[in-house]
């Protein structure tokens, strides 16, 4: 069992699991809303269909998700997106980094 790693700077705070995640499971809800499984929808999180591609005679939608200050993406079969009355559970991969917190207590020398 591993302990959560402290945040940069040794301040003793614990980093959020989303900060360290490369991939995570989310629920794509109707009207562009997003929720983590078992949680209420995040009012700031959104998803949108950016385009389509074909793989093995199946149409896949390229979906971008904005969640927790980062961009995530997934290829989702369009038939699953079309049946999105109660949400579609997908695994998304990080596409951008989260904003870095400023270092505290460091001095710059010229």
How far do the termini sit from each other?
A: 44 Å
Which of globular, elongated, flat, extended, rod-shaped describes the shape? globular
Helix percent reads under 10%
Approximately what portion of the residues adopt beta-strand conformation?
35-45%
Q: Specify the oligomeric state.
A: single chain
Question: How do the strands of the widest beta sheet line up side by side?
Answer: 1-2-3-4-5-6
Can you describe this structure?
The protein has 110 residues and is mainly beta. It has a domain at 21-94. The chain has two helices and six strands, in the order H-E-E-E-E-E-H-E. Strands 1-2-3-4-5-6 form a six-stranded antiparallel beta barrel. A hairpin with a 2-residue loop joins strand 3 (42-55) and strand 4. The protein is globular. The N and C termini lie far apart (44 Å). Mean pLDDT is 78; it is low at 1-15.
Features:
110 residues; mainly beta; 6-stranded antiparallel beta barrel; 6 strands; 45% strand
Briefly say what this structure is.
This protein has 110 residues and is mainly β.
Helix/strand layout:
Elements lengths: L16 H4 L2 E7 L3 E3 L6 E14 L2 E10 L2 E8 H5 L5 E7 L16
Antiparallel strand pairs: 1-2, 1-6, 2-3, 3-4, 4-5, 5-6
């Amino acid at each position: 069992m591993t302990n959560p790693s402290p945040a940069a700077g040794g301040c003793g705070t614990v980093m959020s699991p989303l900060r360290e995640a490369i991939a995570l499971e989310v629920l794509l809800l109707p009207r562009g809303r997003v929720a983590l499984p078992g949680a209420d929808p995040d009012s700031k999180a959104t998803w949108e269909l950016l385009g389509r591609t074909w793989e093995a005679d199946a149409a896949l939608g390229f979906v971008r998700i904005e969640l927790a200050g980062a961009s995530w993406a997934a290829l989702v079969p369009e038939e699953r997106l079309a049946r999105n009355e109660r949400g579609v559970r997908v695994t998304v991969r990080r596409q951008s980094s989260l904003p870095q917190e400023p270092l505290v207590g460091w001095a710059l020398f010229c």
